[in-house]
C-alpha cells in the first residue's frame, strides 16, 4: 500500500512539474493506436487491407464502434475525452493489480479497465440513438403525411417545423436555409448527410427522386414505417436484453464475492490463492473471463439496427 501511494504521488508530481496536458496526451495516444504505423504490414495484412477485410484488435474495434455510436448520436467530439478517461482507468487497473502483487493480473486489468469507459459511453450513445430514432419516426411521419397532400417538401417542413424536437428540428431548419441558396435537391443531399441512419438516408433519396417524378411519393410512407418496425422489435427485445445483462452482473458479483468468502472460510487457502503462482494465474483467468463476458454481453444485447 505504501508503494502504491508513493507511485500515485510520483505521477501527480510529474504531471504538475512538466505541466502535462491530459487532453493532448490522450489525443496523441488515440491517434497512435488508431493508426497502423506502429505495425509491420506483412503480405497477409496487406491482402486484408486491399480486400477491406483487415482484422482489428479488440481495443481498436471497440474504439471504432464507440466512435460510430457517438457519431450517430451527434456526440463525436467526446471521443478524445473518453480515451483520456480510459487511460486513467487503465492506470487504476494496473495499480489495483499491483496492490495485490499479482503480475499476471496487470495486463488483464489494464486492458479491461481501459475498455470500461468505452462500454459506458457506448451504452449511453445507444440510448441517445434510440431517442433520436423515436423523434425521427414522428418527424418523418408528419412531414411525409403533409407532403403526400401538397407535394411540396418546403411547405411541408415549414408547416410542421414547430412540432419537431431537437436534434431533428435543427436538421430541417438547416434544410430550409439551404433551399434558398443551393436549391431543393442539393439541400436534400445536405440533409441526408446530417444523420447516419440508413432509413433516413433512404427517405431522403426517395424524396430527391420525387422532385423529378411525383408519382414516386407513394414510396415515402413505407420507408417511414420501417422506423416503426425497428422500434417495435427493439421494444419486444428490451426485456430479454435486460435479463441477460442482469444475469451476467449477478454472476460477476458472485465470482468476485467468492474471494472474501474464501478468506472467511479458510485463511490458509486464501493465502495460497493470493500468493502462489497458480492462485494468481487463477484470479487473472477469472478476471479475464469476466471482462470478456462483459464485452460479449454488450455485443449481443445491442439494439437492432436496420441494414
Question: What do these coordinates show?
Answer:
- The chain has 307 residues and is mainly alpha-helical.
- The chain has a domain at 130-230.
- It is built from 13 helices and no strands.
- It has helices at residues 2-17, 22-34, 43-51, 58-72, 79-99, 105-150, 153-160, 168-182, 184-192, 198-210, 220-265, 267-275, 277-300.
- Helix 4 (58-72) packs parallel to helix 6 (105-150), helix 5 (79-99) runs antiparallel to helix 6 and helix 6 packs parallel to helix 13.
- The radius of gyration is 26 Å and the shape is elongated.
- The N and C termini lie far apart (52 Å).
Mean pLDDT: 76
The ordered string of helix (H) and strand (E) elements is HHHHHHHHHHHHH
Strand tally is 0
What's the gyration radius in Å? 26 Å
Portion in strands = under 5%
Shape from CA axes? Answer: elongated
Determine the fraction of residues in helical runs and give it as a percent range.
over 70%
Major sheet: none
Q: Key terms for this structure?
A:
single chain, 307 residues, mainly alpha, 13 helices, elongated
Short overview:
The protein has 307 residues and is mainly alpha-helical. 79% of the residues lie in helices and 0% in strands. Helix 2 crosses helix 5 (79-99) and helix 6 (105-150) packs across helix 7.
